[in-house]
Amino acid sequence: MRQAVSIAVLVLLCCSCAGGQAVESSATPDGGSNAGDVAVGDSSDTANPIDAPDDGASELMAGGVPRRLVIITHAFGFLDQGLALPKPAEAGNEALWSVSLGAPETALSPILAPFESLRQRLSVFDGLAMHTAINQNVHHPVLLLTGHPPGLDFLGQIQVPGPSIDWLIGKNVQGKAPVTLAIAGRLTAGNLSFDQQGQPIPQTDPRGLHSLLFADVKEESCPDVRPAPTANSQRLDAWMAAVVDVITPAFRCDRTRVVTLHLPLPSADEVPHKGNLEQDYAHRIGGVGEAGIRARATMVAYNAYAATQVAKLAQALADAEERTGEGRLLDSTLMVWMGREGQPDHSFFPWHVVTLGGEKLGFRSGRYVHVARDVPVKRIAASEPIWTGASHNQLLVSLARLYGIPVDSFGASSVKPKGYEAIPLAGALDPF
Fold this sequence. Notes:
Blueprint: H1 2-15, H2 17-20, E1 21-24, E2 26-27, E3 33-34, E4 39-40, E5 68-74, H3 80-83, E6 97-100, E7 122-128, H4 143-146, E8 151-152, E9 158-159, H5 165-173, E10 182-185, H6 206-214, H7 236-252, E11 258-262, H8 289-319, E12 333-339, E13 351-357, E14 367-370, E15 375-377, E16 386-388, H9 392-402, E17 407-409, E18 414-417, E19 423-424
Parallel strand pairs: 5-11, 5-12, 7-14, 10-11
Antiparallel strand pairs: 1-18, 2-3, 4-17, 6-14, 7-13, 8-9, 12-13, 15-16, 18-19
Helix pairs in contact: 6-7, 7-8
């Protein structure tokens, strides 16, 4: 396996330099070098968590409850003006500040308002940056879950060093669950999840998700299972309703512990708009006059409607009891909702993340965290840098650690976009 990965990485680095970026490889535990491999600790004798034997117990918490993860992505990112909360006066000149979302006096922004009934389970990390997306274009969604810009081989085919964070965590917590990672979506740009060899994990629709998780299940072993969806609706609300009906019993019956959802775009009657949501609205958020105002309002409405759908899944998991009787599904499930871009116009900064639940995993919910803008992004010829928040790679590191994977970096440990100075990406997000 190592030889095959090393050959693929050699082709990647020689032929494309990751699409206009110089990428620093992470050292592997056996002393080799894999661009985009997981750097595990600082010692050469640290065991690779991917290759660690599964003892059937490390993935469980007290009471035999599994650790679970749901990653949700959506197109165009979160419009900053519709999600951000104002800086509290007591924060003073602090670059890093936070407010309690559990306090009823904290007014939620328009995009966060659909989570009102879940505000104590809600957390937001405001102002991270997708540094690996600088100089990337059509291929950059691939780096969302891998933390590594893709490259092209000599035939022009995308090469992904892999793995993605959802697959890695799924492998680490799988235990006796038959499905490592279940993915539902309607992406047209290809897959975003990959195994250790960089091979894509296919996405499916709600009917396919049901078949993947319940095809061989007898009713007595999982009495909660519901009939397969009769049709795959083009509406986002119907799509999410079908997904909720599949995931909730799948978690209760331990059919899988990690799910990734790529939200389809809403129909025009769900979020009123004319023309193309991307070209006619997302790309025009910086415009002036009536067109710019309309574009920004539509993007806020789109984000808020997506939040309504995410809240449906969160509420279903919050209401469903564990089969062991040890709390509710959302207690031991962290939901992580992120945009595939920083902003609707494809800017790499700011990039925001919304989470729900996961308290029994040790995650602190009920927080809005404004990340300090202390990472310089400097063009070589520029006199002053752009100051951004921590890298989204550091969020991936924090997620890995939360699920017991002792990494120091995930994907690229640093990146040097063409025309820019190098940007370090290693380390965990502080605070997380």
